[in-house]
Amino acid sequence: MENITSPFIPNPTCNYSMDLYYHNSPNRSDLNCTPPADYFFYADLYVVLPVIYSVICAVGLTGNTAVIYVILKAPKMKTVTNMFILNLAIADDLFTLVLPINIAEHLLHYWPFGEVLCKIILSIDHYNIFSSIYFLTVMSVDRYLVVLSTVRSKRMPYRTYRAAKIVSLCVWLLVILIVMPFTVFAGVYISPDDSDRKSCVLSFPSPESLWFKASRIYTLILGFAIPVSTICILYTMMLYKLRNMRLNTNAKALDKAKKKVTIMVFIVLAVCLFCWTPFHLSTIVALTTDLRTTPLLIGISYFITSLSYANSCLNPFLYAFLDDSFRKAFKKMLECRPA
């Protein structure tokens, strides 16, 4: 499943095989499209990418597992915001668990794991695109409601840990529904020139290029445009209400604890957008221009994909730096207690 979520569409004028068309993999390009000198560049990628993916996997799996453990074990950590953080960590953990399969496919140059696992892995890979931004959207809605209730000096009896569980379940079901088309079209492609050369790809019906572009637009709208627009509107309204409150009253807009949580959610959101915005912007470029696949373009493509993958391992560090309760819980977890 090498680079399934590659942001760039290769130049269709080049004689690419179907698996390259959907993977943008330099290892599978036609010799007429790739000068021999460029293979030195590809050899570097062959070594560097597994190292990058391995680091993301190790750091992400360790950090997100620690977050899950802390929230589940520490009674004081069972808050509404932490419920959403817990589900975000589970989604990131799920993705980092399948990264070794990405690495294996990259090193082997073919897909040896069968049809069922192809559908599962490709679905999880696409799930990673939607899950983080949707849980952050829900967290932004929650922060807005907290700010609104503080401004109006009202309580929110409906904002409970149980309600957060229900909302989290709804997010999981929504993202599964969104990813379902990718699961349906996922399959193992066998090269007509070599029966041993198998690839885990999105096998769209004809015309393939139109379906592929439609899938990119689908991902761009549902995985970026709608949730990011919602988040921007919420934070704009939030800042507007806080500014007006400071002008009209002498009371503090938020108490210290609520303010810290709001800042933490905002920073986690900003990091997510930093990691994923290049991916979605490159999709726009790929849809509106006809780019020739060059070593530079492929290198940028891999960098953008790696940056989006890296988002799955950054959040635990943000929690540790920005939240005192997380930091204390992490330290307590690492303490060696005597028998």
TrEMBL record:
GO terms for molecular function: neuropeptide binding; neuropeptide receptor activity. It is a multi-pass membrane protein. InterPro entries: GPCR_Rhodpsn, GPCR_Rhodpsn_7TM, Neuropept_B/W_rcpt. It holds the Pfam family 7tm_1. Keywords: Cell membrane, Disulfide bond, G-protein coupled receptor, Glycoprotein, Membrane, Receptor, Transducer, Transmembrane, Transmembrane helix. It is found in: Cell membrane. This is G-protein coupled receptors family 1 profile domain-containing protein. It comes from Culter alburnus.
